[in-house]
Write a structure and sequence with these properties.
The chain is mostly helical. It has helices at 12-22, 29-35, 49-58, 62-77.
Length: 97
């Protein structure tokens, strides 16, 4: 069952992405990379299509990595604001084997 939607954007890649999701079609490796915030100019080198999907799936999203790195840099340049975790407290999550 295909749903119809109205996309008010001339970007054909966005329309294709939404259309593929609604039609239960697989995303291309490039579409998966866009979701992971890789720029279109980023080149991936892989031998098989499964390797491409695995490479993208295992990657840390670019924008997430940027924000984590920026937060770490800010903490390192402002050591007075750095707060260490109190490891003596009980954990919030209990691990059950």
């Amino acid at each position: 069952m295909t749903k119809e939607i109205l996309v008010i954007d001339d970007n054909s890649d966005i329309r294709r992405l939404i259309s593929s999701i609604l039609k239960d079609q697989d995303l291309t490796v490039r579409e998966a990379a866009r979701i992971q915030t890789f720029p279109d100019s980023f080149k991936f080198f892989y031998t098989g299509i499964a390797d491409g999907y695995k490479m993208i799936g295992n990657a840390v999203p670019v924008n997430l990595a940027f924000h984590i790195a920026r937060a770490i840099a800010e903490d390192l340049t402002n050591p007075k604001q750095l707060q260490l975790a109190d490891l003596s407290e009980e954990p919030l999550v209990e691990v059950v084997a």
